[in-house]
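S., here's the first fold you wanted:
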Amino acid sequence: MQRARVSTGPNHHDSLDRPMTITTPEDFTQQWRQPPNFPLDLRFDYLFLPAVDFLDHLRRDEEVRFTILGDEDWQVRMDRTAAFRAAPIEEIVTWPFRLVHFNLSRFYGDLVEDFQEDVMIPWRTHLSARGFTWQRLAPILFLSTEGASSTYHNDNSHGLVWQVHGTKTFHSYLAPDKHLPAEAAVIGETTAEDPPEHDRADRQSITMRPGDQLWSHALTPHWVTTESALAMSVTISHGGLCHRGRFSERELALRSYWDKSPGEAWTHDLRHVRY
């Protein structure tokens, strides 16, 4: 495995209906502070294990969170939930489900060997050299099967979404303030199983294939649908990201809320991310 580098280059998935991919540090520095979300191209030379290996390992871990989905009756979903950790993996991948592990760093020594050295350290170094600071940088892993959808939610941190296996579509809004002001996102008015009714012209839907990356702005409502039999992505969550003393526009609402409610400051962390 080669040592990772953080470099930029052309992205071959751009089209007329897809936002322009950010390919230079200068463009990223200009665009990161305010929506809409945008594709970006960071060339990490890192090879992941197959998605099914991650599924088989993580489904047995005590910190994993998963939800069995589908139109089957309640008892079928309960039986599958009870069997999820032990049933044959060939059977598991035929079930509709979504899974998340918020503490991927626990597996730096085996499942994601060298991820710290090959991805996290180069990315932190890249950001720091360009004047960025942060309170937390942490990888989160998502796995799902075809037809599965995340909840409709917002995260309190910026996310560098990296599609690893399969295909997902990342849905958000071109102008999130029209649908959910940052002040409302801060107090949790977003989370629901499905997005509210909206004009499709307001939506930004970006299909992500293996190797694609996307910048998801903090406190912007979004939902993700799975388009392939099995899909896996890793999101690097950036808590309290700041560039030369300036936070993003929407995170300023979070900081203002904490100023008024100091007892809640710093309680909004990874455990509050919805999946």
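And the second, which I think is the more interesting of the pair:
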Amino acid sequence: MLRIAVPNKGSLSGPAAEMLHEAGYRQRRESKELRTVDPTNEVEFFYLRPRDIAIYVASGQLDIGITGRDLLIDSGADAEEILPLGFARSTFHYAAKPGTVGGLADLKGKTIATSYEGIVAGHLAGHGIDASVVHLDGAVETAIQLGVAQVIADVVETGTSLRNAGLDVVGEPIMNSEAVVILPRARTHSPGGTPTTGADGEEPKVRQFLRRLQGVLVARTYVMMDYDCRVEQLEKAVALTPGLESPTVSPLHNEGWVAVRAMVPSKEAQRIMDDLYDIGARAILTTAIHACRL
């Protein structure tokens, strides 16, 4: 069986389980379950602390993991990102009391408190900045107030927590993170990054798993659009809805009219519907896509 690590709690857990369910995989029924088996798809899921998943995957004991890019990099584990999943997005920033740190260069000689020591140490080293890094678990906003550090490095979403602590963001983001699929770095990969077929027979299952998740991502990104238009307006309509390869066009019973079907980006669907209506298209419908393979 393919052995897959899934976050057991936090902002990664719910969306990961939902995506796996949409991809056709059985998920646990109770949050206390640490392991579940999907015999139909020959997959075994292990529900682990998100911060530990990269280490388990790098060890080779598990084949695949879903975790955060930040947690992967911070762990220093010998695993690599294969597929970004688009949820649990976050941005890492330095923050300090207003007027105390103007930019990245001002971090030299400072003490920085963070829960992500690996990320911060790597970022400082990459910019040639000599500073001390103090590891703290959990919220780090009070570290400056209590004199543990002059600067913190943490996830910034709305900035409300920083403002409440009397802190300002310093400089550009350290990194942007989101949920990702990871594999052990030791796996053999094709030039495109997809696992190649191995003698142990596991790689086809890995490829199938990745295809399913990619299908969910596409299904969430596109909608199917159907509409009717006159033949003389078809070229203009097709220009608005080119589809992936080409739209499907079928003649209608009324002569001079055709029915068109094409996938369109969901974020642009309302604008496209307006434009189609303006050129004379009618009966314009959109429907959700629940799964697909490209």
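Why I say that: Residues 240 and 272 are 7 Å apart (CA to CA). DSSP finds nine helices and 15 strands in the chain.

Talk tomorrow,
H.
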